[in-house]
Amino acid sequence: MNRHTGSLAIRKPYLLLVGDQSEPVFAKTAFGLRDWCGEDCVGQIRFADGAVDLGLPDYTPADAARSGAQTVVIGVAVPGGGLSAEWQEVLLALLEAGFDIASGLHDALEDNPALVLRARALGRRLHDVRRFAGPLKVGTGRRRTGRRLLTVGTDCAVGKKYTALAVARWLQDAGHPATFRATGQTGILIAGEGIAVDAVKADFVSGAAEALSPDAALGHWDVVEGQGSLFHPSFAAVTLGLVHGSQPDLMVLCHEAGRTVIAGLPDYRLPDWESAIAGYTDAARLTNPGARVAAISLNCGRLPAEARAAAVAGAEAATGLPVFDPMASAPDSAAVRALVGACAALD
Amino acid sequence: MNRHTGSLAIRKPYLLLVGDQSEPVFAKTAFGLRDWCGEDCVGQIRFADGAVDLGLPDYTPADAARSGAQTVVIGVAVPGGGLSAEWQEVLLALLEAGFDIASGLHDALEDNPALVLRARALGRRLHDVRRFAGPLKVGTGRRRTGRRLLTVGTDCAVGKKYTALAVARWLQDAGHPATFRATGQTGILIAGEGIAVDAVKADFVSGAAEALSPDAALGHWDVVEGQGSLFHPSFAAVTLGLVHGSQPDLMVLCHEAGRTVIAGLPDYRLPDWESAIAGYTDAARLTNPGARVAAISLNCGRLPAEARAAAVAGAEAATGLPVFDPMASAPDSAAVRALVGACAALD
């Protein structure tokens, strides 16, 4: 039981269940785990040769116990979002084989009576990482000790999780105590704990964010994974609650270079740099008057390679802030050093 | 089944269950129903002489069937928030007597197996008005037909529900088709339907608000009950999602005269008029570029009677907007006529 959040930590190491999923885009969780906590991923279970290959040792449900894993993670989206009879049989066998099971599927493991009964009888745990089981309180707005950095975005799916993971690692590598705080399913599986803030009741979003980054030691940084966007007509509520509850000292504004409208909503133009920075700064200053945007994370993955340096330089000129590409910038790049320095200056 | 929201309408008329609650402040729901849909409230059930008296005809569980009510409404907060054995017996008897039961208690009727089984056997309905049973979608930001007015606030509990009810009535009395749209428990019981937006999963707040005020005829006004405040560190997420999903053409900013800090959070000063108006206008323009604050609802209930006119005049001078006291201003006052006129000008 995590003393801060009341959430049950998910036991590592993991065995990643890929099943027969052949589309990498539907195996994002599995790839995220491999990339960000590869040392905790001891193998994969694939039902078919055509399934996504993570490059990890292969196991079958029958020999999985040899992997040394503690928890089997459903690392893919299953067709239809629900559990087929075939998947249920596999999961029951994995419970028998000694594993806990963790899932970010929409259909909760806890809503499957056969799995619940078997897990209970065997003393195994089922983790539905989208669903926070602990008690939540409404936010209080009380200032907490320690420092917080929150990634925020011009839109969804621009690299907020990736950026938070990278910043946490850069801080740690530079000798600053830092903890990645997960707010979505993949992040929770990587961290082994967290709260899916978009799935809590709306009254409790800021309270959940407060619980997620509690009082900490002087000089410690919680690096909180952002969600949604203040400029997204569907999800801004989640974002604002997370901003208020996280009470960030610093924010990193994430954007995908070349994107001009909200993904899937072509009538909604993305904000310009000035509006985005002002919007997040105003929102964050409600609970932390010193809050500011300290850097830009510019995801250049969709630009041609030869256009990326100019995109970064353009964003730097427009904002006056350090700009890094989270997928490409080296820890010793000027922009990353500037961000780490901004954190250090607040210690 | 409401065609818009998927919610089951609550059958009227109501019998208000007061029980042994002797503190009027814990009978706010019952008073709100009596005041705003008194024609639908045919009686009260009190367990003791010392219980709150709404001035309605008294019934006992044994003779309640004579009242002609369809639904018994739990109109009070019960001690501890849960149902005692005594209350459960009364509710079972009322189901037997032919009533549906509606409740805004934190402990849901639907979580009480004895009530669920009895209601099912008898064909009665249990309404937990804090819990929305229908399917919800995430918001889309699509512009809808018809007009919308949303009440917004500098804080919680400043008169947003009361103001929305009053505005809907003023519009109707002036010949404009208007529908009060409820977003909280008392409002839902008054309207007989609605969605408690603070209790839906955070991802669905704006989608819930969209469902609540669907496409409507030209010239029709949905008057949406506001929740929380953009300036409240606990609840701003709910407010922002409601603003975005309601896509209001006009807003009425509600404030309690004399209040200077967020209730219960003395470290949080309320915004000045300019900041409050700008904050709501900026937020609303994401989904409705024409959105504006059209009037101020200044709840002067805590001021000495002789100070009220000056407070209203001061707010008018500071904002340049029509200012009315929702508890006191007559429908033919200049401010109310100005607001109704602003609506009419958009028809």
Automatic annotation (TrEMBL), chains A, B:
Pfam families documented for this protein: DUF1611, DUF1611_N
D-glutamate N-acetyltransferase-like C-terminal domain mapped to chain residues: 138-330
Alphabetized InterPro entries for the sequence: DgcN-like (IPR011669), DgcN-like_C (IPR035086), DgcN-like_N (IPR035402), P-loop_NTPase (IPR027417)
Annotated ranges, domain D-glutamate N-acetyltransferase-like N-terminal: 53-131
Top-rank taxon, per record: Bacteria
Protein name per its UniProtKB record: EBNA-1 nuclear protein
Lineage: Bacteria, Pseudomonadati, Pseudomonadota, Alphaproteobacteria, Rhodobacterales
